[in-house]
Amino acid sequence: TLGLLWFRQDLRLSDHPALLAAAGEGSVVPLVVLEPGQLTDTRGPARRMLRSVAALHEATGGALLVRSGDPREVVPQAAAALGAQRVHISRDTTPGGRERDEHVADQLQTDGAELVTAGTPHAIGPGLVHTGEGTPYKVFTPFARAWREHGWPQPADHPSEDIWRRPDSAAVARIGEDALAAVLQAGAQDAVDGPAGERAALVRWRTFLEDHLSEYDAGRDRPDLDATSRMSIHLAHGEIHPRTMLADIAAHPAAGSDAAHRFVTELAWREFYADVLWHRPDSAWQDLRDALAALPYDEGPETDRLVEAWRQGRTGFPFVDAGMRQLAAEGFMHNRARMVVASFLTKDLHVWWPVGARHFLDHLLDGDLASNSHGWQWVAGTGTDASPYFRVFNPVTQGQRFDPDGAYVRRWVPELAHLGGKAAHTPWDHPDGYDHGYPERIVDHAQERRETLDRYESTREGG
Ligand code: FAD
Asked: Is residue 432 classed as helix, strand or coil in its secondary structure?
């Protein structure tokens, strides 16, 4: 018989339970369905995804069917055309993914076929780590402890080489619109973020393990250093499974070190946020905690102008601007900078966090709904943290502390490249600080910080 394997955010062949399940049927037709908008979207994240699909096409020896259309229609159509009784997927636990998959499952059932799920993009599937009473964890630290104690399965085996089936052309012609050419074209283009696909993910991962893991703990908070793994982009497309990474760390000579522990903790954050989103799908774009629902935010033309300055990296705060310009140039931003720019938007400009979260997802190559929305809510004070309303990052001292020599600022903000060392963080203190067109600060941080604290306090009193 034949299994249809519908790839989504699991664009790899190793450690892939759904692939193994499909292979159990004898032979497998691999399928990717792209929404028409994904093919025409010229922004970085959409292009990056096409490059990942192109790499998968190559890895399957050209067997991958790439179709354009609404998967709710194309997938059942493909199953019918190929005579596949079962369509195999890795579970997508995001709200939109769940809804789409339920729809496809219903349609397949109507047609006498079945949607079969195996595995998730997480070491432990969202919803499976819970308290003794069976309730979800609301706070990270106890979740991470329970997650470690739960343990995770070993990576899945690799299927035998010769599993791909190329359906006959009459069947292929009946399945949606062919989008392979667009994908191959995108795949052939050079990109700032380096090569895509499973092989590239493994190369990056092994390099990190060998050269950087042991210094991860010391360097991870420093955007001026190349100290983090940058595996988030590969994880976002499922080019590697976190279970593979966890198994490699466990087998690494540094396995028991603080650095390894810290890295595993960061992966646990990704799992935690996926778990929170699983239990509270509404928290993708709404405040997780109601306590701050009445908090007033700024809107209107003046705010729009400030938000635009933030988007362009022209706030006059060097560390914030470096982060935003890294995002624009690379489709990536260091975690410390993400926290500081998010704090700036929400607490210096008093803008509701979804505005920033949307901008991030439009530009981040590692865009992940759960990590993004909950990363934003962590900073905004509406998320999983118990009482962070009083935490307002100081955009200047954060820069001085985590970019001590100003190298990150100089790399991304050429107008400040002439200021040596820490001076890059405070152009206002230097006579030549504004000689090269760097903008003045758009707000007074001390004043906006007080304003934020006042707003929070009165909301709390009011609530
Ligand atoms: P490393 O330091 O090498 O960490 C290893 C892995 O652990 C990462 O690849 C990632 O999968 C996970 N991880 C690390 N930190 C976090 C974290 N705080 N939350 C969740 N997972 C984490 N991460 C995304 O993958 N996609 C997003 O869309 C995203 N949006 C964010 C938005 C905001 C406002 C903030 C504060 C954080 C966001 N993060 C997001 C988390 C984090 O910034 C990135 O995962 C990290 O910077 C990726 O770089 P890296 O792979 O080099 O990380």
From this structure: coil
